[in-house]
Amino acid sequence: MARKFSNLNLSNQEGKFEIRKMRPNHLPYVVAIERQSFPQPWSYSLFLSELSNRVATYLVAMWEGEIIGYLGLWTIADEGHITTLAIHPRFRGRGFGKRLLQYGLRFIQEKRCREAFLEVRVSNWIAQKMYQELGFQPIGIRKRYYSDGEDALIMRKEL
To answer: Which residue is catalytic, options 131, 133, 145, 146?
Structure first.
């Protein structure tokens, strides 16, 4: 049986990085990051409804006590699905997104998922590169997946 969620605390000479389960009081910060990260951001109410979704787990990344990012995961049967991932623009390029996603992948693996899936904008080369570094491989395209008409690249990783 999978372990219960526990916070991850990592400290180093540069500061303290934590991953916690997302709570409703985190949502104003999450939505602010969402709006700075995506052309069609999720709403506060969508995030709030996801927090009560029984197949979903949402996490926040914190640096020195400040919410700097978040990750959404769904676990259905033996599949994990990355629903969303964003890091505040001020904190990008420092490995926080990769560390958060690695934690999420371990989390869904503990829930007995054998593979993970995600969609990423075909124009988002930076995210695609990170996903490939973590073992995700492109497996297809979802045409006009995003509300602005952009296609999504479907990526898969065996766990």
So the answer is: 131
Name the residue range of residue 58's domain. 8-118
pTM of the predicted structure, to 2 decimals: 0.90
How many domains are contained in the chain?
1
**131 or 4, which is more confident:** 131
> Of the residues 34, 50, 58, 119, which is catalytic?
119
CATH assignment at residue 45: 3.40.630.30
Establish whether 66 is a catalytic residue.
Answer: no
Per the annotation, the verdict on 131 as an active-site residue is yes
Summarize the confidence of residues 140-145 as an average pLDDT.
98
The torsion of the CA quartet 75, 76, 79, 84, rounded to 10 degrees, works out to: -40
